[in-house]
Structure formats: C-alpha cells, structure tokens
Design a protein that fits this description.
This protein starts with a strand and ends with a helix. 32% of the residues lie in helices and 21% in strands. It has three domains: 111 residues, no CATH class; 93 residues, no CATH class; 146 residues, Nucleotidyltransferase, domain 5 (2-Layer Sandwich), CATH 3.30.420.10. It has 397 residues and is an alpha+beta fold.
Length: 397
C-alpha cells in the first residue's frame, strides 16, 4: 500500500511560521505570517513528523513495534499474525489471515488517503515473483538499466565478477579516470547487491577506490558489469521449508588489502532454504594473525546473528536452539572458548571477547567446518570459476 502525500499527514510539535503564499495574502494583514500546524514537503521536520504520526496510529491498532527494527510492526489476533514493514510512505503487509490483512487495509484507508497496489510484485527496485512453494526475488529490470546507462548492452559477458589474480591498490601507476563516472558505476552495483550476493565482494573492494580511481579500477568495475550481462536474470530463490532454524557462515582473508594490510570479513545467514543476509567488509584494525582475522570476522557475524535472533523473536518465531555460525579456523574457535589471556591473544581488543559470553549464554555456537564447505569464502577473495559457481549455487543465486 502507498500513502498519498504522506508528509502532509505529519503533525508538527515545533512552532514554525511561513510567509503568506502568493495568491493567499490576507488584505490588510500583509505583514503577518502563518503558523504551520501540519508538515509540508521541504521541511526538515516533515519525515520525522510523518513517522511519529504513522507510528502512533499503528501502536493504537495494538501493533507491537520491533525493538531491533523501528519500521517493523507485528500484531497477533486470535492466533493469527499480521506483519507490516514501513518504508517512508510504502507499507509491505503480510500475515497468516486474509481477513486480518483486509481489515487492516480498511483501517488505513479510513485514516489516510491510500492506494492499494495489490499483491506485491515490485518493492524498492526488487522484483518479487511468487510461485508454488517458492519466491524468486531479483533486480532484472534494474540490471538492464545499468547496462544501458553505461553503454554496455552489447558487451562481452564474463563468468566471474573479478579476476582470480586481481590485486587492486590505490597507487597502481595507471592513468586516473573521471571520479563521477566511476562512482556512478559502483553506486549502481552496490544497490544491485540487495539480490546479488555473488558480486558483493568485488563491489566491496572496488568501493575502496572512490577517490582518484584509475584505469585499472575502472576496468575491474566494468568486468563486474560484464558479469552481470551474462547473469542478467539471476536473483535469489526461496523455497518453502519446514526447517526454519537460523544458521550462518563466517570467513576472513588475512592482510588482503595491499594499501593498509587490513583483512576482509565476510558472512552470510540462512533461515530454512536460502541465504538472506550477507556482508563483505574490510576490517577496522590490522590483524596480526590469521586467527585474529577470523576472530574479528566471527565477531561481526555473531553481532548480526544476535540482531537476526531478536527480529525472529519480534516476529514470534523465537529460535528454539543456539544459532550455529560455521568458521573454518579452529584457532579462532579455540580462542573464543578460552577464558584466559595468553601472549598471543592479549593484544585483541577486549570488547571482542563478548563472543565467550554469548556462547556461554547459549545464544550462539561457533562450529568448525572444512574450508571447502565454507560458503562465506565467496565474500573474502576472488575465486576460480568452478569454486565460484559452486558457492554461488549454495547462496541460492
């Protein structure tokens, strides 16, 4: 559902005055101003005023607001559940009861001027294609727009987004290129990663060179676009599953960034059938060993796992057991269980040791997996074609 002129529904708490608009000047009171009672587009308070209005309204309908995601609302009624996700003036609605959904739509239409867009097929640039017992989510239309925007509709397709031997650095001696053009490509590709985790690592690495990019960086960026050309119809497919247990994978390289020797962390999480949450990011500190790099990566993954568990609780899908995070480094797992500082680990930032606490509490369990079974390997380095395609399949792409 879409709220028409949503910001005009916001009620202002501040005293705000405006000049009398042309055509509405009161004769004899030309030196007077109007005091605003409701928000207008252009006011910096307008977005907050609208959110406060819709938030109060939904809470008044006995919705519970998620403590972990402030735009997620959940309502239980007679054993059924209704879920509303708010994105500015767009509402994504789902639930276990058609009647509950229809009643909510009627309530919204009475309170606000609304447009019922029907069964969701397109949301925030993502195409949603429901089929029997599965849902396919992609950005095919957007991917085609990227090819057209950068004049690469007829380019030669590539089978991986990044050359396995590619080692990018800031000062590569190559000629510099237009920053705006390079940033435009990377910005478009970053938005595409919402449904294309297979390009996430390459895009994450390239985003480090937004300032003073070179011909080498531009060539690498265009290779990602060429890969998109050959996989234009790819997306993520979710199947109906009885197993709704949350689990994830965490991995890291060691000193992969040639400019500062920092490592790259990667993780992904699945709930039942396919991966739905993923990340590839350069670490904030320089790891002094592979174990430390993996430990830092596992910490980031556990933070995400805890947040996802809280979301599941808000959706009344509380995890029945500890969430397993698979790591392919036994030393990192051993460190997370060891309550004693040693010479080789005392330089770790103490805040990272919360891993021991969450495992002790039973919320998270770090589990060893073989390197060849590590799905998050696709988020830390460029891979050969065979392994890349295998992990891409495991991601559900």
């Amino acid at each position: 559902m879409d709220v028409k002129s949503a910001f005009l529904n916001g009620i202002l708490k501040e005293e705000i005055y405006v000049e009398q608009p042309e055509g509405f000047v009161v004769e004899g009171k030309e030196d007077k101003v109007y005091r605003l009672h409701k928000a207008l587009y252009g006011l910096k308070q307008a977005p907050r005023a609208w959110y406060s209005r819709i938030d109060d309204y939904l809470l008044g309908l006995n919705f519970e607001k998620s403590l972990s995601e402030s735009t997620l609302y959940v309502k239980q009624h007679s054993g059924d559940i209704l879920v509303v996700s708010l994105y500015v003036d767009d509402l994504l609605i789902t639930g276990s009861s058609t009647k509950l959904i229809d009643d909510f739509k009627q309530d919204m239409m009475q309170a606000f001027e609304m447009t019922d867009l029907g069964l969701v097929t397109y949301f925030l640039g993502m195409e949603i294609k429901p089929e029997k017992d599965e849902v396919f989510i992609c950005q095919n239309k957007y991917a085609k727009e990227i090819l057209k925007k950068f004049g690469m509709e007829n380019c030669k397709a590539m089978n991986t987004p990044m050359n396995q031997k590619e080692k990018l650095r800031k000062d590569d001696g190559a000629e510099k290129v237009d920053e705006s053009y390079f940033r435009s490509i990377i910005g478009c590709l970053m938005y595409l990663t919402a449904t294309r985790p297979d390009i996430l690592y390459a895009v994450s690495v390239l985003s480090r060179f937004m300032h003073c990019p070179s011909e080498v960086h531009l060539k690498a960026a265009k290779r990602v676009v060429r890969y998109i050309k050959g996989t234009i119809n790819y997306g993520v497919k979710f199947h109906r599953s009885r197993n709704m247990e949350l689990f994830g994978y965490s991995d890291s390289d060691w000193g992969g960034s040639l400019d500062d020797m920092k490592s790259t962390s990667g993780y992904c999480f699945s709930l039942g059938s396919r991966m739905f949450s993923w990340c590839s990011k350069k670490q904030d500190t320089v790891a002094q060993s592979t174990a430390q790099a993996e430990f830092v990566a596992a910490t980031a993954a556990v933070n995400q796992a805890l947040w996802l568990r809280e979301i599941l609780v808000d959706l009344h899908m509380e995890p029945r057991k500890s969430t397993e995070v698979f790591v392919d480094n036994q030393a990192a797992i051993a460190i997370s269980h060891n309550p004693v500082f040693h010479g080789k680990t005392k330089h770790f930032n103490i805040k990272l040791f919360f891993l021991r606490e969450v495992q002790k509490d039973g919320a998270i369990t770090l589990v060893y997996c073989k390197t060849e079974e590590e799905v998050a390997d696709i988020f830390k380095k460029p891979l050969p074609v065979s392994k890349f395609e295998l992990l891409r399949q495991k991601l559900g792409v």
